[in-house]
Description:
By secondary structure, this protein is of the alpha+beta class. The protein has helices at 118-127, 135-144, 154-160; strands spanning 23-28, 38-44, 48-56, 60-67, 70-74, 77-81, 86-89, 95-99, 105-112, 147-149. A hairpin with a 2-residue loop joins strand 5 and strand 6. The N and C termini lie far apart (31 Å). It has one domain (23-149): Jelly Rolls. The strands form 2 sheets. It has a 5-stranded antiparallel beta sheet with strand order 1-2-9-4-7, with no helix packed on it. Strands 6-5-8-3-10 form a 5-stranded antiparallel beta sheet, sandwiched between helices.
Amino acid sequence: MLTNASHALTALEGERADFPGLGSRYVLRGYQTDGRFAVIEHTIPPRTLAAPTHVHENEDEYSFVLTGTMGAEIGDETVTAEPGDLVAKPRGVPHAFWNPGDTETRVLEIISPAGFEQFFADLAPLLAVDGEPDFEAVLEIQVRYGLTMDFDTIGSLMQAHGLES
């Protein structure tokens, strides 16, 4: 993690908050940017839905594809992004994203303003359990971060984009 004494973060450093279908490595947290933005590196396994359709009330997200391919639905538009492409997911607009390819996808996710990056750390322990997660606790976390998630879109997104998990 970057500190006053360090202005570099290696590819192997950074706290993690991983859960099925989406790995998250903290690159910059909001306290390091005076709350202006946060940066997370997401890894998405092949043919995997990273997030069903959801809406952010408070922040915009920008996904910069590093490796692999990222598919996304933003509003009524479906896009496919390759390395070097940037996908904007504005607050208030329903969106979902996934890896349609046969290799892992890595994305730098820029969140503005910062704050939502803590969602991943709060959610990860609830999804790391055997069996069903505590859905009431998951909903409480979503409400806390101004996130509305439509779990009913999982099946249709997986079928429409040839996803396996």
